[in-house]
Amino acid sequence: MPRDFSRARRVGDQIQQELAGLIRDQVRDPRVGSVTVSEVRVSRDFSYADVFVTGLGMEAEESQEMVRVLTGAGNFLRRALAQRLTLRKVPVLRFQYDPTFDRGARLNRLIDDVQPDEGPATPDSD
User: Residues of the signal sequence (predicted)?
Assistant: First the structure.
């Protein structure tokens, strides 16, 4: 049984790599912009794949619009994947917004906004 999980993970990794290239090279919609495919989770029966994406430098609203555009291009991307992968059945792609990068950027801004402590007193060299 553990082989099923590792195969699903391997297929997910391959789909992630291929999708990143396909979106970059084939999707011409300006609403998509610079996309990072952060993770692909394939179901146990390979019927669907959850594709987690984030737009670099995009606000949350723009990212949601990007997900709608990619969902609309899902069948096109699935057909292109079928030509590149050696799978009997290519899973249905379900795009979802991944807020992980936004959270990380927000935490970095909060850390940068904090004033550094004075630290331990150092002797003045007069």
Answer: none
